[in-house]
Amino acid sequence: MEKLNELRGLIDEIDKKILNLLNERAKIVLEIKNWKKEKDYPVFDPKREKEILERLIKENEGPLPPEAVYGIFKSIMSYLRSLEKDLTVVYLGPEGSFTHQAAVKFFGEGVRFVPLPSVEDIFKVLEEGSDFGVVPIENSLEGTVGVTMDFLAITTNKVIGEVYLDIRHSLLSTEKDIKKIKRVYSHPQALAQCRRWMRQNLPDVEEIPTSSTSYAAMLVLKEKNSAAIASNFAAEIFGLNIMAENIQDAWNNKTRFLVLGKNIPKPTGKDKTSIIFSVKHQAGALYRALRPLHDFGLNMTLIQSRPVPSKPFEYRFFVDFQGHVEDDKVKGALDKIKEECLDFKILGSYPEANDF
C-alpha cells in the first residue's frame, strides 16, 4: 500500500499541473476570442484543429495510443472552444444515434447537440441560422443516402468536414441475464445485419422493428425482458447494460457523414472537394465533364447519380475528389468541368477524415 499511495501522490501532483496548464490554455483562448470577434473570424476552424491533432499524434512517444491522444485533445479543444461561443450542432436523431456519435467524434463534447427527426429538418434549421449540422451521406453496405444529396443540391450551406464511423452493433438491456430476453427491438437494417448472431444466440425471441437503433434503446429502458440492438454509444447515453458486443455479421460496415456549416475551411494539404452538376443529353457528355479530373491528376473518390425532381428522367451527378478549391490544379479542373455542364455547384472543400 505504501508504494501505491506513493504512485497515487505522483498522479495527484501531475493532475494539478495539468489543471493549471489547461487554465493557462483557457486564458489564451479568451484572448483569441477577442481577436476573432474584431476580425469577424469563424469560431470553429477545422483546418487548425486538424493541424493540432496531427502534430500531437506525430509527437506522441507513448504509452498512450494515437486514438487516445486524439480523443483527449479533441475533448480539450471542444470544451475550451465553448469559452468563445456556445456552438449548436443539429444531427439526425434521436439521441444516441450513429449520427449523434459521428457529431461528437467530429466536434467533441463541448457543444450543444440538438437531435432532429429528419434530414430535411436539419437542412431547414441550418438555413434558419443554426451553426452546424451532421448528416449521413453513404454506407459501405447500403450505398448513398439519396435524400441528403437532394438537399445538398439546394442548400446555401457548405460541406466543411466528413466523419467515417465503424458501425458496430451490441445487444443492450436493463437485464443482466441474456436468458431473460424475450423481445429484441431495432431498426430493420440492424436486425438484418445481426441475423446470424440472433439465430445462434436468441433463436426464439420476438424481433420488433423500430424507426432507429437509438429509439430501440429508449424503448427497452421501460420494458423488462427486452433488449435493443444498438451501439455502445447508445448504451452510454441511456445507461444500459451491454450484454454482447460486435454482434453484426459483417465487419466492413462503415458510414460516412458530412458536416455542414457556413464557411469553407482553408486547405490543409489533404483535402476533399464535393461538387454536383448536370450535363447535356449528348453522347460522351459525362465523360467530357469528368475528363478534367484525369487531365489535372485529381483522384475521384465518389460518383453518384440522382434524379432531378422537376425534370423526369434527367439526372444530377454528385462527385467527390481529392483536393481543395484553392489549389491551382482544382481551379483549372473546375473551370473545364463547368464548360460541359448545364448547372454546376461546389458543395464544399474540407479536410479528409482521419483514421480514428
UniProtKB/TrEMBL annotation:
Site annotation (Essential for prephenate dehydratase activity): which residues? Answer: 255
Question: Chief location of this protein?
Answer: cytoplasm
The UniProt entry, under InterPro entries, shows:
ACT-like_dom_sf, ACT_dom, Chor_mutase/pphenate_deHydtase, Chorismate_II_sf, CM_dom_sf, CM_II_prokaryot, Preph_deHydtase, Preph_deHydtase_CS
Protein name (record): Bifunctional chorismate mutase/prephenate dehydratase
This entry's Enzyme Commission designation comes to 4.2.1.51, 5.4.99.5
List residues of the Chorismate mutase domain.
1-88
Q: Which Gene3D superfamilies match?
A: 3.30.70.260, Chorismate mutase, Periplasmic binding protein-like II
Q: Where in the cell is it found?
A: Cytoplasm
What pathway annotation does it carry? Metabolic intermediate biosynthesis; prephenate biosynthesis; prephenate from chorismate: step 1/1; Amino-acid biosynthesis; L-phenylalanine biosynthesis; phenylpyruvate from prephenate: step 1/1
User: What are its GO biological-process terms?
Assistant: chorismate metabolic process; L-phenylalanine biosynthetic process
Q: What does this protein do?
A: Catalyzes the Claisen rearrangement of chorismate to prephenate and the decarboxylation/dehydration of prephenate to phenylpyruvate.
Alphabetized, the UniProt keywords read: Amino-acid biosynthesis, Aromatic amino acid biosynthesis, Coiled coil, Cytoplasm, Isomerase, Lyase, Multifunctional enzyme, Phenylalanine biosynthesis
**Domain named Prephenate dehydratase: residues:** 88-262
Q: Name one GO molecular function term.
A: prephenate dehydratase activity
Q: Name one GO cellular component term.
A: cytoplasm
ACT domain: residues covered: 274-351
Which parts of the chain are coiled coil?
4-38
Which Pfam family, any one, appears in the UniProt record?
CM_2
Catalyzed reactions? chorismate = prephenate; prephenate + H(+) = 3-phenylpyruvate + CO2 + H2O
